[in-house]
Amino acid sequence: MPLDHRRVRGPEESQPPEVWAAAGGAGEVPEEEDAAPRDPCALRPLFARAGLLSQAEGSAYVELGGGTKVLCAAWGPREAAEPGAAAAAAGGGRLLCEFRRAPFAGRGARLRPGSAAEREAEREAAAALREALEPAVRLARYPRARLAVSALLLQDGGSALAAAISAAALALADAGVEMYDLAVGCALCRPPGPAAAWMLQPGEAEERRAAARLTVALLPALNQVSAVLGGGQGSPPDAWAQALRLGLDGCHRLYPVLRQSLLRAARRRDAAAATTA
Amino acid sequence: MAAPELLSDEGYRADGRRPAELRKVRARMGVFAQADGSAYIEQGNTKALAVVYGPHEVSGAGHRARGLRSPPSPSAPLRAPPLPLGASAPPRGLRSPPSPSAPLRAPPLPLGASAPPRAPPLPPGPLRSPSGPPLPPEPLRSLHPPGLSPFVPGTPRPPPATGAAEVRSLPGGRGPSPVPVPAPPRVCTSPPPGSVPAPVCTGPRPQMRGSRSKALPDRALVNCQYSMATFSTGERRRRPHGDRQAGELALQLKQTFEAAILTRLYPRSQIDIYVQVLQADGGNYCACVNAATLAVMDAGIPMRDYVCASSAGLAEDTPLADLSSPEEAAGGPRLVLALLPASGQIALLQLSARLHQERLEAALEAAGEACRALHAVLDRVVRERLREVAALLGD
Amino acid sequence: MASVVLSEAEKLYIVHGVQEDLRIDGRGCEDYRCAEVETDVVSNTSGSARVKLGHTDILVGVKAEMGTPKLEKPDEGYLEFFVDCSANATPEFEGRGGEELGTEIANTLYRVFSSESSIDLKSICINPREHCWVLYVDVLLLECGGNLFDAISIAVKAALFNTRIPKVRVLEDEEGSKEIELSDDPYDCIRLNVDDVPCIVTLSKIGYRHVVDATLQEEACSLASLLISVTSKGAITSMKKMGKGSLDPESIFEMMETGKRVGKSLHIALQKILDEEESLGTSRQKVGFLG
């Protein structure tokens, strides 16, 4: 890693002061946040807009009520960089995904920007993104080509991967890539405690404290699940099945919003084309 | 120097062996089904696995796989440049175009490009620049066969790294000639850690990133990787391979086996030898050579002879064969010998720490004796295996 | 990952076979291949295990080293996973070729062990905030013949079962400086309770059915698989969909049920082997790679 000698390098790891404050016996600060128990089935307001970047072939921006902001750009089929690899891909194109966190995305210094741990986390998220999108894209229509999607997380307010999946699917669709369906992502978490119920679209604080987390992605028109990724303690025996149902239901409810934004983008583009013509 | 406690008054070593006694050797061939050849060896508590793939096309599995592997990391255009990956990214771009045609692949440039960032502390740093000062090359050049000189300064090829690498593989030429030309013993005194690297290390840091030289028109390319399991040593290792030592040992392994395998039978092809130390207790390299010999035989690749390797040390005047890890750690002289027992040719000879020249003979003799004893054991293993296989085929 | 290339006809043969609950090697859809488990194969580790499942060959070494607890959890030790996809498995893994798969598996293992109850981390804390044991779980992939994740999780559980951490005592003198004393007796050690350590069950969707423990050939026929980690009590600790296909929601629920059922019996079988091996004690003849 290239060292930046002009700056004072901070320590490799840093911790939010809350860790120490809590140990000092001070009251649990984050408790008050969820003083009012929220409806576990409630979705946070979602804002989606497609086609907002002029340089990228397709782009989308998704914002969740809690403050999660994701910007996605997609590039349509390009010639595959490695001819050998393209031949090995059995005729189908390849989808390259990238997921990056902006250095200012997190509230606490969870991971030092640019650290190996953060790169690792980004790479894992990128792999999850690819697995979620691959079933939605008609890769067989793009032999020997590659499609690229880049997601930039501007602000992490919880459910970041789910928002990125939705945004990336929108961006691909906006780029005119042939797809079977949009992939809609939805996150859930279960707070600690034996009787706690799963909640849809957790905020960042809820996500951090959660005993179990789950991200699902659905292709709603086909009713196919394209991603399931979760771990933790889902105490009652069929808790995970419940969570999955809840999450898929959430995806179905988010679908119209995403479709609307896509339609609006298409209309805007038509209008723009009409004025220039 | 050689600590007296290496040998008790009664003439026994710490683990109860006599000076010339080997540790118990157990070996098995054909451990894995998917590899072309594989073998496992235990020498005392040192355990090593060797796997052989090939001979196959040079542009084969390894290269294509890399092509496959690299893309999943987000495409280069999307990626911000300053990442450390940046250093290795350009070679990828460069390496890919050559496509299937074998001789084109692995152009020298990418290797040079990827080598410098990994090797800042090496003394030969100034040597690396193509128009380097004329002063340092001299001592270096004298150590190498004359074939090297055209490569060193002022060649249009920027990386002396590759230049030197080719030289490394050239000495292999001494082996492949069927006439038993006595191989020039390579005595390299690698000094204790901390001092100036020995001549062995003056070349590029071997990078076991696959075959970097082109397919050789007249013989097979031997490609080696030496790795140690992270849990193999007393203290946990951070990574299994890719460090300096592993690279150096892999290079030595390559040289050893280039001398032993009849590489001329397989022009334009590649033979991969991967060794893995599972448990380290002294003589790791030797165990790996022995395992690799068995694996190469298991793969059915013709060799001139077995390659048997053993280490030897000295306790006062008594030579000790097959050093264990505490004996290696005692800091006495250590001789590593890889021998082709039938012809008596030396494939590799390495001496670390200082040793009076008069004692060299004795240590060498002890190591040679140990190699011959190992040869008998390995030969038995091979014959047994052959009987097994023959019996299975017969049914 | 190592993979095989199959013709359409071969794929069809496998898919049709699975439909009839008869797989190419004669197994049913919910049968595992014969697995060989051996513990304590590498003597300079705290615990080790080798698992051979069909052609998949995994060696796991657990090393306990002293470290400082993580700040968020000052009274707990922690586990570190590292997966080395060695070139032994396939030449593709040479150099850094195996790194990507290695980190993917390591991340999966972190997620599998993310449930707090899977292993009692408090028991490997020496003194809070200062010292704890760090268990480095190093997985070495020697050969891959399908169903890597399951084999690795079995090996990890066996190695953790085999792990013996030396007991230490913390001595505190008058000035409050602490000294750590290692017990001299090698048999005086902590064992880990692995009852709640989950195993991964990978269910590969082939045609309309799903199979467990897919071979390389079957993996080539499967577009999507669901990876579930199940404890011996049948509780799920993590889920992940793998592969480039998608799954029907209903089939996911079915797969989860199958996973739980298969996982439970897998745990029982594994525990039986481990206990058997344990009861033999030192009289057990070590086979290692020589067998």
Automatic annotation (TrEMBL), chain A:
Q: Which InterPro entries match?
A: ExoRNase_PH_dom1, ExoRNase_PH_dom2_sf, PNPase/RNase_PH_dom_sf, Ribosomal_Su5_D2-typ_SF, RNase_PH
List, for all copies, the residue spans of the domain called Exoribonuclease phosphorolytic.
43-178
Sequence intervals crossing the membrane: none
- List where in the cell it is found: Cytoplasm; Nucleus
What SUPFAM superfamilies does its record include? Ribonuclease PH domain 2-like, Ribosomal protein S5 domain 2-like
- Tell me the protein family, please: Belongs to the RNase PH family.
Question: Source organism's superkingdom?
Answer: Eukaryota
Which keywords are on file for this protein? Cytoplasm, Exosome, Nucleus, RNA-binding, rRNA processing
Q: Where is this region: Disordered?
A: 1-37
UniProt keyword Cytoplasm present = yes
A Pfam family matched in the record: RNase_PH
A GO molecular function assigned to this protein is: RNA binding
GO BP annotations of the record are: nuclear mRNA surveillance; poly(A)-dependent snoRNA 3'-end processing; rRNA catabolic process; rRNA processing; U4 snRNA 3'-end processing
Q: GO CC annotations?
A: cytoplasmic exosome (RNase complex); nuclear exosome (RNase complex); nucleolus
- From the Swiss-Prot or TrEMBL record, give the protein name: Exoribonuclease phosphorolytic domain-containing protein
TrEMBL record, chain B:
Q: GO MF terms on file?
A: RNA binding
Residue intervals of the Exoribonuclease phosphorolytic domain = 21-58, 202-302, 305-369
Which superkingdom is the protein from?
Eukaryota
Please tell me whether the keyword Cytoplasm is annotated for this protein.
yes
Keyword list (alphabetical) reads: Cytoplasm, Exosome
Biased region (Low complexity) positions are: 85-96, 162-171
Give any Pfam family that matches: RNase_PH_C
Chain intervals with Pro residues compositional bias = 71-84, 97-110, 117-139, 177-196
Q: What does this protein do?
A: Non-catalytic component of the RNA exosome complex which has 3'->5' exoribonuclease activity and participates in a multitude of cellular RNA processing and degradation events.
Q: What is this protein called?
A: Putative exosome complex component RRP41
Q: Name its species.
A: Mycteria americana
Automatic annotation (TrEMBL), chain C:
The question of whether Thylakoid is a record keyword is answered with no
Q: Name where it's found.
A: Cytoplasm; Nucleus, Nucleolus
Enumerate the UniProt keywords alphabetically. Acetylation, Cytoplasm, Exosome, Nucleus, RNA-binding, rRNA processing
Superkingdom field: Eukaryota
Residue ranges annotated for the Exoribonuclease phosphorolytic domain, each copy included: 32-166, 196-261
Q: Which GO terms describe its cellular component?
A: cytoplasmic exosome (RNase complex); nuclear exosome (RNase complex); nucleolus
Q: Name one GO biological process term.
A: U4 snRNA 3'-end processing
**Main localization of the protein?**
cytoplasm
The record's InterPro entries line, in alphabetical order, gives:
ExoRNase_PH_dom1, ExoRNase_PH_dom2, ExoRNase_PH_dom2_sf, Exosome_comp_Rrp42_subfam, PNPase/RNase_PH_dom_sf, Ribosomal_Su5_D2-typ_SF
Gene Ontology MF annotations: mRNA 3'-UTR AU-rich region binding
The record's similarity note reads: Belongs to the RNase PH family.
What the entry lists under PANTHER family is as follows: EXOSOME COMPLEX COMPONENT RRP42, EXOSOME COMPLEX EXONUCLEASE RIBOSOMAL RNA PROCESSING PROTEIN
Quaternary structure (record) = Component of the RNA exosome core complex (Exo-9), composed of EXOSC1, EXOSC2, EXOSC3, EXOSC4, EXOSC5, EXOSC6, EXOSC7, EXOSC8 and EXOSC9; within the complex interacts with EXOSC2 and EXOSC4. The catalytically inactive RNA exosome core complex (Exo-9) associates with the catalytic subunit EXOSC10/RRP6. Exo-9 may associate with DIS3 to form the nucleolar exosome complex, or DIS3L to form the cytoplasmic exosome complex. Exo-9 is formed by a hexameric base ring consisting of the heterodimers EXOSC4-EXOSC9, EXOSC5-EXOSC8 and EXOSC6-EXOSC7, and a cap ring consisting of EXOSC1, EXOSC2 and EXOSC3.
* Name of the protein in its database record: Exosome component 7
